[in-house]
Amino acid sequence: MDTATFDRVAEHFAAFHQHFAPYFGRPEARNRSEQYLRGLLLQHADRRNAENLAEAVPGATPRALQRFLTEAPWSTAPIIDALQQYFAPRLSAPDGVFVIDESGFPKQGKHSVGVSPQYCGVLGKVANCQMGVFLAYVSARGHALIDARLFLPRVWTDDPERCKRAGVPKDVTFASKGDIGLALLRQARERGHLQGHWVTADEWYGRGAEFRDELEQDGWRYVLQVPLDLEVFTEPAKLVMEQRGGRGRKRKRPRLAEDSPRPKAVGSILQEWDAAAWKVLTVGQGAKGPLTYQFAALRVWESRAGLPERACWLVLRRNQDGSEGRCYLSNAPAETSLWTLGRVCSRRWPIETEFQIEKGEVGLDEYEVRSWRGWHHHMVLSLLAGAFLLTMQQEWEKKDAAGDAAASEPPTPGVAAAAALECSRVVGVDARHAAAQRARQTLTSQAAARQA
Q1: N or C: which end of the chain has fewer CB within 10 A?
Q2: C-beta neighbour count of 368 within 10 angstroms
C-alpha cells in the first residue's frame, strides 16, 4: 500500500480516537485505549484477548491492556453519552427507530459475571453463557449499536458474595431484560442526541404486556413482534358483570357473555388472512437490495386474562412467497399508514447485522474478563470500534457518490490518485459496504511501521 493511502487511514483513526480520548482520564489510560481500539480493528487469526492484542500493537503488553480493562477506573457512562452525540450528525433522522435486543456470549465455568444456564441464540439452545442487552439506532442514514448492559440472572442477584467477587456494584439489583432495555431507552432519550419516537423488538420483548405498558406510559410508539400464540380480539366483545365474593362484601367483575366473540391467536389470523388482501410494500434498503414484503394490518383489542383491553394494531408480515410469517402489535394511532408500520417493524433486523459485524470484525464476543467492570469496558470499546467502521463507510460512500456524479466527465490527472484511494477501504467495513475490502491490512501495515 502506498504511503499517501497509509497516512490517510492513520489520520482518520487518530482523529477518531482523539475525539474520545479525554473520557478515559489519565494519559496512560488514553494511550491504552488507543492501543486496545487499534488491536480490535486489526486482523487476528486468534481471539482478540489481551495477549493477542498486545502482540499486534507495538508498545502494548498483555498485563497493561488487561489492567486497563479490569482495573482502570474510567466510567462507561460519559463515553456512551459521547458516542451517541458522535452518532447524531451521522445517523440521527426524524424516521429513526430504537431497537432492543439481546445477545449471548457462551462461557465455561461459573466465575464470569452473570454466567448461567440460559437460552443462547448463538448456539440455539440453553447453555452456560452471559447475556447482554443492547440498544441500537436505525434510520435511513444507517445503523449502529449505541449502548449495552449485562443481564444478571436471579441466581446472581440473590447471592451478594458472588456478586461482590465479580465486582458488581452494590446498587445493582435484579432487572429483567425488558427492564434493562427500558432503562437504556430512557437514558438515550434523556441524553437527547438521537431523534425518533419509535421502538421495535423481537417477540421475547413483545410478548410482555408490562413491557408494552411501560413503553406506552413513556410516550413511545412501538411495533413489537409477538409470539404466534398470543391472543387478541378481532371483534368488540360483550361483557357482563359477575358477582363474586364470600361472606363479606360482594364484588362485581366483568366476564365474557356467552354469545361474545372469543379471542383468537394471532398465528391463526395470519394463516387465515385472505390471499388477495396482502399488500406488497418496499420499506427500505438492505445489504442485498430493496426490502420488499407482503403486509396487512387490522385494528384489534389486546386480550388480558381472557378480557379485552386497549385497541391496537395487529400487523402481519411475510415474504413475497408467503413464507416466514410474523405478527406484531403496535400502539400507533388508528390513522397510521401500513407503510409506516411495515417500515418500523422491518428495522429490527439491522441489529442482527450489527451483532455479526461487531463480533466478526471488532471482537465484541472475544474477551477474557470475569468482572462487571471488565465486561462493560470491553463492550464500550467494541462499540467505539464499530463507530469507527461506520465513519469509514460513510466517508467512502461520499467519495463513491462524488465519483458517480463525475463519471461522465473527461478524465483528469486526479483520477489515478482516486483509484489509489480505492485500495484504502478499511477494516471489516466490507460487511457494511461492498467496496470496502482492505481495512485490516492498512492498520496492520501501520502497526508494523511503528514497530520498525
Answers
A1: C
A2: 16
